[in-house]
From TrEMBL:
GO MF terms held by the record: identical protein binding; L-tyrosine-2-oxoglutarate transaminase activity; pyridoxal phosphate binding
PANTHER family: AROMATIC-AMINO-ACID AMINOTRANSFERASE, ASPARTATE AMINOTRANSFERASE
Source organism per UniProt: Jejubacter calystegiae
Signal peptide feature range: none
UniProt protein name: Aminotransferase
């Protein structure tokens, strides 16, 4: 029965993590997996999240089923976080999902139901985009994003490609903190992208997994708000995995702006898709998120904590660049401080990445992507000196 199932290829990022854990070198450094670590190199439990968690625990509520679309207090709070004052739009609907990944998958299934066959992804993009959309039955195609040789956004090539796509084409866009390159368009470049999307009547599928880690909570979601203000239809997957450090709780949402149909109909279709796959979302993580977002003091505390995480990442970027310069690294160092968010495409070659892992126990994802919050005051000098020694 199952004899046709051959061995599957392990996920490269997860297997790198396994190699890192098995490494007994005392000064090993994990710059692989996309987790935010604090200055001590540990995964944080945010104070806002901890307080919300404590409050929920004391309520001793029974574990009922939530609505298929998630609890209203979660959905409304997330809508306000994403869309700000424009969240009241009737053409907008938001549904709780199993993290950002679950939102992408659900959105993909909706698109398949609507007869969409393809999705256009930036080159490069988060590798799981390819897997999620392919398994859901969409053919991934790529559009230019980043020139790794020069460390530049390929804005002209990207606009040219978007301009040639047929009307109705679905285009995945990272609103901020592009994974894996860290290379984001400027506000002017975003305006040009949205102009093209509007003129060519393309359908954006925004993927916001790092709100608050780029330029700030409000700034990082600006392209989505601009699409809403322009009245454009779009999908948006949104994750609270990183900015609330709720990874394993699987807290995310899928929002749809559909100016041409009743949002309630779209919500009905999405609920049908959820019901037939996992029935309804889990509740503890989303209750934590709703408690944080709906309480003024906890909300502010979370914003401050997110800002502190953003500033730590920025400080580590600057520190790495300074140390690389001081060590005379043979690398285009400027790109590290031009990039934003958790990741940086350093320009290191696959061979240099392998040497860093084998000879220095420093773990990076190929081709040359580092997860910046893996850097701390304790390891940044070692990392910079090691990178310098493999690039000289
Ligand atoms: N989109 C991007 C670009 C991501 O980097 C990630 C997480 N690595 C996700 C979506 C998925 O987020 P989650 O862990 O909430 O499923």
């Amino acid at each position: 029965m199952f004899s046709s199932i051959g061995p599957s290829r392990p996920d490269p990022i997860m297997s790198l993590m396994e190699q890192y854990l098995a490494d007994d070198c005392p000064h090993k450094v994990n710059l692989g997996i996309g987790l935010y670590y604090d200055g001590e190199g540990t995964l944080p439990l945010l104070n806002s999240v901890h307080e919300a968690q404590q409050r929920l625990m004391t309520q001793e509520r029974p574990h009922s089923y939530p609505p298929i679309e998630g609890q209203a207090q979660f959905r409304e709070a997330v809508q306000r976080l994403i869309f700000g004052h424009s969240a009241q739009q009737t053409a907008l609907t938001t549904l709780q999902t199993l993290g950002g990944s679950g939102a992408l998958r659900l959105g993909a299934e909706l698109l398949r139901q609507l007869g969409v066959c393809r999705i256009h992804l930036p080159d490069p993009t988060w590798p799981n985009h390819l897997a999620i959309f392919s398994v859901a039955g969409l053919t991934p195609e790529s559009y230019p994003w980043y020139d790794n040789a020069n460390g530049e956004l390929l804005i002209d090539a990207l606009l040219d490609r978007l301009a040639t796509l047929p009307e109705g084409s679905v285009v995945l866009l990272h609103p901020a903190c592009h994974n894996p390159t860290g290379m984001d368009p400027s506000p002017d470049q975003w305006r040009s992208i949205l102009d093209t999307v509007e003129r060519r009547r393309l359908l954006p599928f925004f993927d916001a997994a790092y709100q608050g880690f780029g330029a700030g909570i409000e700034q990082d979601i600006a392209p989505v708000r601009q699409a809403l203000e322009r009245g454009l239809p779009f999908l948006l997957s949104h994750s609270l995995s990183k900015n609330m450090a709720l990874y394993g709780q699987r807290v995310g949402s899928l929002s749809l702006h559909c100016p041409d149909v009743a949002a309630i109909n779209v919500l009905g279709t999405l609920k049908g898709l959820v019901r037939s796959s996992y029935s309804c979302p889990p509740t503890f993580g989303s209750d934590i998120a709703a408690t944080v977002l709906n309480d003024a003091a906890l909300h502010q505390c979370w914003r401050d904590e997110t800002e502190a995480m953003r500033l730590r990442i920025l400080a580590m970027r600057q520190r790495l660049a300074t140390e690389l310069n001081a060590n005379g690294a043979g690398l285009d160092i400027g790109r590290i401080t031009r990039q934003r968010g958790m990741f940086s495409y350093t320009g290191l070659s696959e061979q240099q990445v392998d040497t860093l892992r084998q000879d220095f126990s420093i773990y990076l994802v190929n081709p040359g992507r580092i997860c910046v919050p893996g850097l701390t005051e304790r390891n940044v000098d070692y990392v910079a000196a090691s990178i310098a020694s493999v690039t000289r």
